[in-house]
């Protein structure tokens, strides 16, 4: 019986995915965490904790180094909220082009007998533009960005996509009407609207800063519904003051952005729909069960992807440092124990590696001795034995 602990409000659709071999929130000493936005950086992980699944794309709330050292695989659920973010961006593109927020605020504060006459006089100040024929730069065309690009193109916009890490698989999801820029500057300097959809890491933090804003068109409208820190907010305020950026829309508020007519801050609602929460919870639950029951890895953020058909009675999995002769040590130890290897697979991700060894036979005594001996190798973080 596997134990799962949840944090935050996890959609029932995800909890319902777990089979009878799983108990939910019966103990803090869990095999798996299924989480959303809870901050785990200051928490101590139980040694029993084998997997953390984050029901969402971001994982900045999880200390990856601590998890890896504990032998805990960490997963996110990329794409689970992509449609939700896409729809919000399209809504904001329409709202920004037609000055809907300012117009609605005006109407809410003006009433009385002469409102019709006054409205006819004042409404010209809210005159907007149409999206058709305007240029949108989509920075990052992965799960979210590709949907935004395709939807904007369907509205008649000219769309330029920029993503230096675009995979062949992701490219299939992008309409042939999308122009692919070879540099960030090429995408930015032509755009009437700019939206960013990249993960946050060392390379993307501050991706849209003063240098990038300087080459944008005058009057550009900027959107950050990716992660806090992708856009340099201080630089954005400077360029808003200079009227270089006309309006800035973001899901990540801070004091410097507040109480400005040219900034719209939403309270981190990009992926907050019932459907997105259900998708993330369901994908997270499936990920937990797949990893615990088969050892296969897909969409891990701290371990390499490795998927091997589980066709033997027993499977051995090891999380270990990516250093020379690890595979050799594992194979030698098994050979010395008289255990036959049916198949062996290994993959690495920077300093961490993952090995799957399939075995045709293993008795209880051999299992305990094997786990003990392998666990004593200094570079090994966790050893598991799975039985089909």
UniProtKB/TrEMBL annotation:
Pathway: Amino-acid biosynthesis; L-serine biosynthesis; L-serine from 3-phospho-D-glycerate: step 1/3. The keyword Oxidoreductase applies. It catalyses: (R)-2-hydroxyglutarate + NAD(+) = 2-oxoglutarate + NADH + H(+); (2R)-3-phosphoglycerate + NAD(+) = 3-phosphooxypyruvate + NADH + H(+). Belongs to the D-isomer specific 2-hydroxyacid dehydrogenase family. Keywords: NAD, Oxidoreductase. The keyword Oxidoreductase applies. GO terms for molecular function: NAD binding; phosphoglycerate dehydrogenase activity. It comes from the Bacteria. It is an enzyme of class 1 (oxidoreductase). Its EC number is 1.1.1.399, 1.1.1.95. PANTHER family: FORMATE DEHYDROGENASE 1, HYDROXYPYRUVATE REDUCTASE. Catalyzes the reversible oxidation of 3-phospho-D-glycerate to 3-phosphonooxypyruvate, the first step of the phosphorylated L-serine biosynthesis pathway. Also catalyzes the reversible oxidation of 2-hydroxyglutarate to 2-oxoglutarate. This is D-3-phosphoglycerate dehydrogenase. Residues 315-388 form the ACT domain.
């Amino acid at each position: 019986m596997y134990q799962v602990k949840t944090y935050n409000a996890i959609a029932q659709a995800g909890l319902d995915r777990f089979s009878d071999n799983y108990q939910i929130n019966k103990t803090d000493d869990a095999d798996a965490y299924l989480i959303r936005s809870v901050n785990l950086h200051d928490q101590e992980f139980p040694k029993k904790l084998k997997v953390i699944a984050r029901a969402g794309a971001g994982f900045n709330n999880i200390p990856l180094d601590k998890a890896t050292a504990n032998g805990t695989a960490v997963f996110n659920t990329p794409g689970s909220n992509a449609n939700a973010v896409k729809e919000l961006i399209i809504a904001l593109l329409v709202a920004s082009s037609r000055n809907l927020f300012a117009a609605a605020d005006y109407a809410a504060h003006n009433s009385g007998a002469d409102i019709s006459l006054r409205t006819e006089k004042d409404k010209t100040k809210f005159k907007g533009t149409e999206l058709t024929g305007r240029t949108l730069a989509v920075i990052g065309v992965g799960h979210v960005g590709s949907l935004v690009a395709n939807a904007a193109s369907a509205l008649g916009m000219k769309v330029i996509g920029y993503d230096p890490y675009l995979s062949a698989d992701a490219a299939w999801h992008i309409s042939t009407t999308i122009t692919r820029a070879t540099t960030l500057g090429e995408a930015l300097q032509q755009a009437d609207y700019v939206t960013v959809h990249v993960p946050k890491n060392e390379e993307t933090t501050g991706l849209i800063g003063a240098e990038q804003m300087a080459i944008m068109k005058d009057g550009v409208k900027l959107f950050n519904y990716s992660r806090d820190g992708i856009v340099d907010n201080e630089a954005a305020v400077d360029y808003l003051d200079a009227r270089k950026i006309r309006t800035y829309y973001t899901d990540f508020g801070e004091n410097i952005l507040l109480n400005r007519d040219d900034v719209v801050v939403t309270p981190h609602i990009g992926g907050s729909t019932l459907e997105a929460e259900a998708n993330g919870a369901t994908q997270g639950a499936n990920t937990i069960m797949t990893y615990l029951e088969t050892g296969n890895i897909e969409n891990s953020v701290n371990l390499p992807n490795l998927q091997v058909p589980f066709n033997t009675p027993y499977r051995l999995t090891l999380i270990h440092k990516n250093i020379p002769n690890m595979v050799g040590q594992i194979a030698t130890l098994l050979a010395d124990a008289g255990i036959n290897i049916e198949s062996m697979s290994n993959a690495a991700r920077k300093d961490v590696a993952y090995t799957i060894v399939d075995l045709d036979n293993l008795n209880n005594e051999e299992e305990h001795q094997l786990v003990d001996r392998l666990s004593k190798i200094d570079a090994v973080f966790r050893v598991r034995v799975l039985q089909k």
